[in-house]
Amino acid sequence: MSGYTLLTTPATNRDLRFTPAERAAANLTGLLPPAHRTLHHQIQHLLQKLRASPTSLTRYEILLNLLARDETLFFSAAQANLPLLLPMIYTPAVGDACQNYSDLSIPLRGMWLPISDPAPLRRTLDNWPAAAVDVIVVSDCERILGLGDLGANGMGIPVGKLLLYSACGGINPARCLPVVLDVGCNTPAVRDHDAYIGLPIPRVTGSDYDAFLDQFMDAAVDKYGPNVLIQFEDFGNANALRLLDRYRDRLCCFNDDIQGTAGVGLAGVLSALRVKGVKSSLQDHTFVFLGAGSAGIGIASLIVLALVREGISEEDARRQCWFVDSRGLIYKGRASVSPAKETFAHEASAELQAVAPKGLLEIVKAIKPTALIGVSTIRGSFSEDIIREMGSFNDRPIIFALSNPTSKAECTAEEAYAYTDGRAIFASGSPFAPVRLPGRDTNLVPGQGNNSYIFPGLGLGVVMSGARRVPDTMFLAAADTLSKLVDAEQLAVSCVYPDLNSLMDISASIAYAVCQEAKRLGLNDKNVDDLDVKTIREMMYEPGRGKM
Ligand SMILES: NC(=O)C1=CN([C@@H]2O[C@H](COP(=O)(O)OP(=O)(O)OC[C@H]3O[C@@H](n4cnc5c(N)ncnc54)[C@H](OP(=O)(O)O)[C@@H]3O)[C@@H](O)[C@H]2O)C=CC1
Ligand SMILES: CC(=O)C(=O)O
Ligand SMILES: [Mg+2]
């Protein structure tokens, strides 16, 4: 490749970094101004521009435009500055981006597949430029973060997840495919907006929806082979678990909101057990989940798997997890309990049944959980009195406000710490800054309990091992690995996740654990015997090195 093509191909463009000799050799003379810049200089300039940029949307535009022009600069900057850039391309900014998608000045990226298109999906997939794809992130955008149904505007999520696959998980961006299955949108304000980019129809459901999903899964496997990893993302509650159950034993797929979140949730809990002052066994804990959807049921199911591994019966393990949904506490015999919720519907005394519809405070008083996990999308639902109540019978209450984006978090880090005199072990789905309580001389550091700690490394392990399926035990292995990477320094400031700066290394460790699990289960189509963490780390995509 040379000349104009070299400059206009994002993967090869090195912009003002081309040296005079390279410019002469590649017919670039005259196509670039005379100045020469180093990568370091350009990263610093980018960071300056981002810091001066006024809103999350303008920063998102800067970054997505850069990505479409110069992948080396984009991923080099991202990999070297993950704590700064992640919130700009992922949560919380990606929520703003999806809510304003049709007004953004960014190049379109990914494939939108409308259910109304009569062309076979298999043929449409041929329009994607890459012949080989390792990972597909697909959404029907019915539940974008905690923001609801955003229809085709939800593309920011598959795109953002795949940027993390490359920036944190070392998968070559050329081998990633973001997909929106456009089956309509049930949010009138989105659908009826005159600039809406998707199908302006109510959501298609039932057998037509299922047939479309089947067609997509078949087309993806036919085009990219049985080892292509398909990640379901931000499907609504009525479909998420159902689709996972439909495909998980047939294809190489997982649901990130159920299983990825489970991995990060369990890892946070395991780390919390190591924070000074907390009882050291999972068996001693009682969990109350606010929200009984994909994320909550996913986390609880993996906690159950971890407890069963410790020798607890599955039934007893489930009894350690209680759920509260929009109708109150779930218990055996309550009305409106779906099969997934039924698994965690326990016998409840008459007193507890009486408390069930009264709200979270009364439920917390009655159950006295050691851990309160928020996956409800309801900002402020962990109110001051609830947090204080958690602190009244726990030395170190575990309080995870995992709903995204920040505007949907059940409470802030500051609230969790302030109302427990700094005793809360807090984590949140979107980032919060460290908190210094009055009169203290050290910060408390909230960990980011986000599945971004899990899916990049998990996907990398699946790709490297050629695993044909993605069983739950891979998420157990990922959670164990993630938790073990939290060091004493982090635990001392109540942080239950490792430093975000080390996400590439974390992903290498998780990938190794996943490869070993694939081998243990006989699922690996590739030989993993020669892989260790160091080898995996060296194979991961970094701009200019890119062995993956
Ligand atoms: N940190 C992370 O890594 C992740 C965070 N999340 C976040 O978690 C949140 C939930 O996601 P997900 O589980 O997939 O969503 P779902 O739509 O599957 O589930 C939402 C749940 O919240 C419940 N809920 C809604 N309103 C209330 C209320 N007022 N009180 C109690 N419960 C309520 C719903 O109740 P009902 O069943 O009665 O309708 C439902 O059970 C989102 O904000 C998402 O961004 C999700 C995945 C990963
Ligand atoms: C993080 C994530 O996957 C979500 O909030 O949906
Ligand atoms: Mg999600």
UniProtKB/TrEMBL annotation:
UniProt keyword terms in alphabetical order: Membrane, Metal-binding, Oxidoreductase, Transmembrane, Transmembrane helix
UniProt keyword Oxidoreductase, yes or no: yes
Cofactor or coenzyme needed: Mg(2+); Mn(2+)
InterPro entries according to UniProt: Aminoacid_DH-like_N_sf, Malic_enzyme_CS, Malic_N_dom, Malic_N_dom_sf, Malic_NAD-bd, Malic_OxRdtase, NAD(P)-bd_dom_sf
Domain of life of the organism encoding this protein: Eukaryota
Binding positions ((S)-malate): 143, 404, 450
GO biological process: malate metabolic process
Domain Malic enzyme NAD-binding: 258-519
Family statement: Belongs to the malic enzymes family.
Name of the protein in its database record: Malic enzyme
Species of the source: Dumontia simplex
Taxonomic lineage from the root: Eukaryota, Rhodophyta, Florideophyceae, Rhodymeniophycidae, Gigartinales
Gene name linked to the record: me
